[in-house]
From TrEMBL:
The keyword Cytoplasm applies. Pathway: Carbohydrate biosynthesis; gluconeogenesis; Carbohydrate degradation; glycolysis; D-glyceraldehyde 3-phosphate from glycerone phosphate: step 1/1. The lineage of its organism: Bacteria, Pseudomonadati, Pseudomonadota, Betaproteobacteria, Neisseriales. SUPFAM superfamilies: Triosephosphate isomerase (TIM). InterPro entries: Aldolase_TIM, TIM_sf, TrioseP_Isoase_bac/euk, Triosephosphate_isomerase. GO terms for biological process: gluconeogenesis; glyceraldehyde-3-phosphate biosynthetic process; glycerol catabolic process; glycolytic process. It is found in: Cytoplasm. This is Triosephosphate isomerase. Pfam families: TIM. Substrate binds at N25, W26, K27, G184, S223, G244, G245. Involved in the gluconeogenesis. Catalyzes stereospecifically the conversion of dihydroxyacetone phosphate (DHAP) to D-glyceraldehyde-3-phosphate (G3P). It catalyses: D-glyceraldehyde 3-phosphate = dihydroxyacetone phosphate. It comes from Chitinibacter fontanus.
């Protein structure tokens, strides 16, 4: 039997650098023609200062990755298996993603949690599989409207982070805070609510490893549009955005990317770590 292709990249430093990034999650939308139109247009806008990442549906990953070569656009999967290989019809491994040129994979998106019954243990397994294969997982966490109303946001997020921190190499992951009530609803978290929640996430991570918490990119997702992107991105603990609906229309997406280019955080912001007492 052929040995599973695991661990080849585990020794590479895949730690993401904390800087602004804008991630387009196309979800189950698009076509080859859409990819062929979007990637060159995104490539013309992409600049080194803000990483521009696209998450196409799986059948288009290889094409997008090829189209993106040399454009400054990077490629992410929307999901990945937790196993390196095996009898898992319909799934793909992190090593396969690395082979087709992906740098990232979304893990634990709320739509996977809701419609595919993914739990925190499985999501931690997927993050682990990515990290071992040299793919940076973008681990999505977030509370429901009911949980927020009951005052359970902190508990829900900390529990999701505990699972992440049980994963070897977790320091090399990216966390995306996507409150479930903000996804696809046109009701984004206010910049203040998003900042307070990101500060809580960073403070909780810092209890385990302050340096890792200071370095880790924390993205916000949920109804990010051209008219709220700049205010969200200006917040000190928001390092980027994960965009769904507005990423499907170049005219709606490019202003979000431009907003990120305009909001450059200083090194002092990147070095400050809130404590749990400060964010309480
Ligand atoms: O789920 C999201 C990104 O992963 C957010 O989707 P919307 O931007 O459509 O709210």
């Amino acid at each position: 039997m052929v040995e599973p292709h695991v661990g080849a990249a585990a020794n590479r430093d895949v730690s993401p650098r904390r800087r602004q990034m804008v991630v387009a999650n196309w979800k189950m939308h698009g076509s080859f023609d859409f990819c062929r139109a979007m990637i060159p247009a995104l490539g013309r806008a992409a600049q080194d200062a803000v990483e521009l990442v696209v998450c196409p549906p799986a059948p288009f990953l290889a094409t997008v990755s090829q189209l993106a070569l040399g454009t400054g656009v990077t490629c992410s999967a929307q999901d990945v298996a937790e196993l390196p290989s095996g009898a898992r019809t319909g799934e793909w491994s992190a090593a396969m993603l690395a082979e087709v040129g992906c740098r990232y994979a979304l893990v634990g998106h709320s739509e996977r949690r809701q419609h595919h019954y993914e739990d925190d243990a499985l999501i931690a397994g997927k993050a682990r599989a990515c990290l071992l294969a040299g793919i940076t997982p973008i681990v999505c966490i977030g509370e429901s409207a009911a949980e927020r109303e009951r005052g359970e946001t902190e508990q829900v997020l900390c529990n999701q982070l505990d699972w992440l921190m049980s994963t070897p190499l977790w320091r090399q992951a990216i966390v995306a805070y996507e409150p479930r009530w903000a996804i696809g609803t046109n009701q984004a978290a206010t910049p203040e609510v998003a900042q307070a929640t990101h500060a809580l996430i960073r403070a909780y991570l810092a209890q385990c490893d302050a340096q890792a918490a200071a370095r880790m990119p924390l993205l916000y997702g949920g109804s990010v549009k051209a008219d709220n992107a700049q205010q969200l991105l200006a917040m000190p603990d928001i390092d980027g955005v994960l965009v769904g609906g507005a990423s499907l229309d170049i005219a709606a997406f490019l202003p979000i990317y431009s907003a990120a280019l305009q909001v450059q955080h200083t090194d002092s912001v990147y070095q400050s770590i809130p404590t749990l007492q400060q964010v309480a």
